[in-house]
Amino acid sequence: MPVSSQLRTAHVRSIALCTALITLCMPLLLSRATAQESSPDLPPGQNPHGMHVYIWGGLKTHPPGRHDYPQFLADWSKLLTDHGAIVDGSLHPPTAADLEHTDVVLLYKGDAGYLTDEQKAALTAFIKRGGGIVSLHDSLCGPDPEQFATFVGAGKKHGEVNYTNPAPVTYNIVDKADPIMADMSDFTLFDEAFFKMTFAQNPGIHVLATAVMAKTPSSGAHAGEVVPQIWTYEHTQSGGQPARAFVWMQGDRYENFQNYQVERMLLRGIAWAGKQPVDSLINYVAPPRPARPGQPATGQPPAPGQ
């Protein structure tokens, strides 16, 4: 056979082989493309297996250093990401779509009890799926404390004088064996405490810490009362799955979020509310960062916050 005929035969065979390979591989390539479209990569630095936390913040209300909801959204988005969570959030109530893949709603917004029917329905459906809520400071305040108590174990009536104003808050750790309280001791914060709350019944809350109401112009005859300030709440909405809530009533003074004991307590409370091992956020170790061009890869994983 002439050389030119041999080359043409080989070329035809090569084309046929490539066509066969493409035919065989095309379904695999399409399935991978579809998977990539439906499951886009997370931003660098996020843990793909982390629990999903939605931070529901609010607009700034009080003087500097107090009730700084926007700053919390910014700071704790970073902090929780560093501790292995996947974080989303906003300064408005989460929608049903926002809550679809959320494990825990972290709530730090004044008077969050003011909900439209649509917002209330979305939050109720989330809880019925077993979603967790972490409520901080006056987030549980609103027009219907009995209703909000069904979400987090207690509600506070908006408009009532039921606070101490910033004053010493001395904790008495009631349940020292609870793992959420592993780093907490009987110490005093300068913050704000609350009384005259409506607590859920059947089931009720599990009290982790109480405080004696300080004597202030606003506490009046309630000075000296012992009132729960930290608790957990396990409940099941009608027709739903078991759900959890964790509540810390302080947070008026924003600086207290940086307290070592408080920060670790909150990280444990968030993990617990999301039905994760209670130390999963605290013990998270990020993988080593990839090497930058011209630099060696880091041998040790970065510490949280770096």
What would a concise description of this structure say?
The protein is of the alpha/beta class.
Named CATH topology = Rossmann fold
Mean pLDDT: 86
Judged by helices, strands and strand pairing, the structural class is: alpha/beta
Name of the CATH superfamily: Class I glutamine amidotransferase (GATase) domain
Radius of gyration: 26 Å
Task: Please give the CATH class.
Answer: Alpha Beta
The CATH architecture can be named as: 3-Layer(aba) Sandwich
Order of helices and strands: HEHEHEHEEHEEEEEEEH
- Count of discrete alpha- or pi-helical segments spanning 4 or more residues: 6
Biggest sheet details: 9 strands, mixed
Percentage of residues in helical conformation: 25-40%
Estimate the global geometry from the Cα principal axes. Answer: globular
Strand arrangement, largest sheet? 2-1-3-4-12-11-10-7-8
What portion of residues belong to β-strands?
15-25%
Low-confidence segments, given as residue ranges, are 15-39, 299-306
| Number of E strands | 12
CA-CA gap between termini = 71 Å
Number of domains: 1
